[in-house]
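Give me structure tokens for this 179-residue protein.
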Amino acid sequence: NRGNDARIDLDKASLNIETLKSRILDALFIVNYGGKTELAFAGNYTLSQSSKDDGYESLLITSRDYLNQCYYESTSSRTLKLAIENRGKTYKGTCWGFGLEYVDMATIATPFKSPTLPLWDSYMPQPGGWLIAVYFVPGFGTTFRETAVGIVNKQTYVMGVEKFSPAPTGSALLFNQDG
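Here you go.
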């Protein structure tokens, strides 16, 4: 659609894609669980004092489907069970929580601070709006692909995106120009 292409071009002109990628990479983690690899990012949550007293400093956001089995294990068996990596350093994380309805994301608690990305925005995405998909491709690692919002359900806040290639084998994280 030519109108969508024009919108994507205008949005790209207003940001530096390499700077955005760098901001995302600073807050991005590779997560290994159950023989699969996915990505997570550090969100700008404010943790409670009790969570900090338990030794946690940040929460990472990832696919709920990817970690779903982890939440059926006891709290003690899932504590610091996940292997997570950021810029070549390996850490441990704990399956933390997820929303019950209309939410396909889950959180991982970590015992360290990390650069964060904003979680919520005050605008409703519009069809044709620019996005960048970030996902893990076995044999290639972290992959970035530009795409666009394809369809939006404003009642449930669910959206679909335009197809991009190579298709992810797991989940893709989507970011707008603000991260």
